[in-house]
Amino acid sequence: MDKSKILVVDDESRMRKLVNDFLSRAGYTVLEAGDGMQALEVYASDKSIALIILDVMMPGLNGWDTLESIREMSSVPVIMLTARSEEQDELRGFKLGVDEYITKPFSPRILVARVDAVLRRSASTQSEQHDIGGIVIDKSAHRVTVDGREIDLSFKEFELLVYFVENQGIALSRETILNNVWNYNYFGDSRTIDTHVKKLRSKLGEKGDYIHTVWGMGYKFEAVR
Amino acid sequence: MDKSKILVVDDESRMRKLVNDFLSRAGYTVLEAGDGMQALEVYASDKSIALIILDVMMPGLNGWDTLESIREMSSVPVIMLTARSEEQDELRGFKLGVDEYITKPFSPRILVARVDAVLRRSASTQSEQHDIGGIVIDKSAHRVTVDGREIDLSFKEFELLVYFVENQGIALSRETILNNVWNYNYFGDSRTIDTHVKKLRSKLGEKGDYIHTVWGMGYKFEAVR
DNA sequence: TATTGAGTGAACGTTCTGTGAAAACTATAG
DNA sequence: CTATAGTTTTCACAGAACGTTCACTCAATA
User: Residues 178-207, chain B: which have Cβ under 7 A from strand C?
Assistant: First the structure.
């Protein structure tokens, strides 16, 4: 399968770059537009774009107006970026066929997960499930079973485990983990990861040592002892 | 099974588009007509249409007159779209074989559910019924029994329960629930869901904990403790 | 052995959920 | 049209679950 093309529309270049980074790393091809007009031009000249991520609050053509114009030419999937404080104009969104909302600030993991989900949905209707060495993760049900036994994970623990599993065999620094599982504007102590790892390990029982410590570096998930 | 073809008749293009969107996403093929005359033409030239959704209030031929003409050529299933204020001419509808009414505003869930129901009914004479772990839901009778004992649910409680049951095992955010169970133009507090969940849980008795809280996320229905 | 990093349990502050009651809204009957 | 009962929504508070930090201990490296 080839990489899907995604158009990111935001007036803040910092935000565009950020989203671009995350999506590029997730294997997508990313195009950027700094305002609504530019977005329309870009999309008009390249209808192979699979998904558009639209910031709501922009000078000139705002996200909604831009979307309205886009809808005149296509029903391409759209994700709206909103600030927490901004009211989500759900009615408008619904009518215009918004597929998802992402509230700033968001974690890269969530961004990528939503993008994946929307693209998957637009392709087919399939439920995402991982199964690694006896650990079964059902993302849609937000459920994890170890050797058939369901275990109870908190939100962050779940997010962290999913991140580990989706990056099996790769040594991940605390920095990297923080950047991907936590919000991009998180500035806390990276040792908080240790605490979550501890809890994860204990909740995973004997499968807990699939989470390997890479001394002086970080952690690595691998389904072996 | 191939997609059923549905003809949507409404003078407001926005409304047509909206209904089209919802139904397309649900996997139906949608045709549109902007007035009664056009509807008659479209239907006359394509009798493979499985269902017609008719707005009552239209300039020119109104919904009723249009339906009358349609009935001269076919007994195709029909759903009438009415505004809350408009009186539902039930007698007339009954005589003309109206299958369902949908009152504006409606939620996507209701639209798709009614369409599904009508088409299913028109295919076989089966009444829609769920039976999950002792909870029996008769959708057409709008009745719920728990371990054989009938319980009394309000409209919203019923809708919510049905939505949960039809999405078993999936963690549903409040956002998602609001979008699907409430009207598309609902702007309220998502905590209202908590209140309904509370009442549902208590009315379901010990089966109440089939509704699981997914902390930091939403709720999930699962017929286990 | 000295130094640096990791494991751990407890404590704290934060965020989210459960809940009852009040308010707003609807439908119904008089 | 008004009163009334029932339903839905909002609100505020209490309590639970969670995320984070900290101080300490233990382990790895050189």
Answer: 191, 194-195, 197-198, 201
Distance spanning both ends of chain A, measured CA to CA: 33
A201: the nucleotide nearest its CA (via C1') is C7
Question: Do A32 and A120 belong together in one domain?
Answer: yes
Q: How far apart are CA A225 and CA A133, in angstroms?
A: 11
Q: What is the pLDDT of residue B192?
A: 95
- The mean pLDDT value of chain A amounts to 85
Tell me: do B9 and B112 sit in the same domain.
Answer: yes
Q: What is the mean pLDDT of residues B185-191?
A: 81
Bases of chain D below 7 A from a protein C-beta are: 6-12, 17-23, 28-29
Q: How far apart are alpha carbons A9 and A81 in whole angstroms?
A: 9
**A36 CB closer than 7 A to any strand C atom:** no
Which single residue has its CA nearest the C1' atom of nucleotide D7?
A: B154
List the single residue in B with minimal CA-CA distance to A154.
Answer: B215
Place of tokens 């040594």: A171
- Give pLDDT, residue A84: 61
Residues of chain A in contact with residue B220, where contact means CB-CB under 8 angstroms, are: 141-142
- Say yes or no: B35 and B135 in one domain: no
The better pLDDT of the pair A95, A40 is held by: A40
Average pLDDT score over residue span A59-88: 82
Query: Would you say A22 and A112 are in contact if contact means Cβ atoms under 8 Å apart?
Result: yes
* Spatial distance between the Cα atoms of B78 and B115, rounded to a whole number of angstroms: 9
pLDDT for the residue B221: 94
Q: Quote the number of domains for chain A.
A: 2
